[in-house]
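Hey, I'm writing a tutorial for new members on how sequence and structure tokens pair up, and I'd like a real worked example in the thread rather than a made-up one. If someone can provide the structure for the chain below, I'll link this post from the tutorial.
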Amino acid sequence: MTRARMPRPHEVAAARRDPRLLRAWRARNDDPSWRGRGRCQSVDPETFFPAPSEPADAALALCRSCEVQGACLAWALEAGDCNGVWGATTPRERRAMLVAWRSGKIGAVSAS
């Protein structure tokens, strides 16, 4: 098992401009009933938690076509969850997004 490293500054800067993060920021206060509308409801949960040596392509493809992708990613970032695929992001991508999320400095939006 490998230890997760802290994201580098350029990764955090790129995450701040990532359209998936911007979508999550806008959806962060959405109705919590989004969970029942996710495309993942009809798929084996193991799909979203591949082993480190396995690709996450199937989960990412499913997430990209899901209507609640933003709310899902917002939930994962609020929870600090860096395991599995959430909101069409991998754990590595979310670690950089999490730094931006917690600072509130996302795109041109600030947390004030």
